[in-house]
Amino acid sequence: MRIGSWAQARREVAAILEKINADPALALAAAANPLLALQELGYDVSPTARQEIADRIRFGEKVSQERDTLRSEIFTHAARSFDLDSAEDVHAVLFDELGIGQGKRLRSTTPSDLALAYRPSAASEGASRPRDPLEDLEHEHPIIAPLVRYREIERSQPPFASPETYARLRRGEGRVPNIRLTARMKASRTPKA
């Protein structure tokens, strides 16, 4: 079955949860990466729906909408879309294509430096996070402010488990408690006419 949107995924949630909860190892793996669980169950999730579902699960409705707005703004400034989660793509767009930071000494100019700044802090909740090296360029180009905000939001929640971690969970490696997934959905509010 093809899932093309968050709304369609919501309509299928009861059937999805029934399948997931029938297998405790799948339930655990689905908690770690629900998109890989959908794929394992035979769902074909479109790239647009994949992004929307991931954002809604990780960040909720309001922040998901903010991320969508930020992506649109960033892509408009870049004059193309690119993988915002790839340090190499971000580096290529900012420094190679847009020529940002020409003639300035930057704390970080390599893709690997950008990736390190982009990872979530291992520090405890409430501790300050490392400064994003892109903040040094905030007045260089209008793409920087929305990109820094996007990265700040991205760092605020842990990412889904990697395919390797998902596979380990499916094999039952490691000790974990019994888990059962439930879903809580807010009713959509439609404006009164």
Description:
It is a single chain. By secondary structure, the protein is mostly helical. It folds into two domains: 1-59 and 161-186, no CATH class; 82-159, no CATH class. It is 54% helix and 2% strand. It has eight helices and two strands. A two-stranded parallel ribbon has the order 1-2. Helix 2 crosses helix 3 (34-40), helix 4 (47-78) packs antiparallel against helix 7 (144-156) and helix 5 (87-97) crosses helix 6 (111-118).
Regions with little confidence, pLDDT below 50 for 5+ residues: 187-193
How many helices in DSSP terms?
Answer: 8
Give the class from helix and strand content and strand pairing. mainly alpha
The whole-angstrom Rg is 19 Å
Overall mean pLDDT:
84
List keywords for this structure.
2 domains; disordered C terminus; mainly alpha; 54% helix; 8 helices; elongated; 193 residues; single chain; two-stranded parallel sheet
What secondary-structure arrangement, pairings included, does this model have?
Elements: E1 2-3, H1 6-21, H2 24-32, H3 34-40, E2 44-45, H4 47-78, H5 87-97, H6 111-118, H7 144-156, H8 163-170
Parallel strand pairs: 1-2
Helix pairs in contact: 2-3, 2-8, 4-7, 5-6
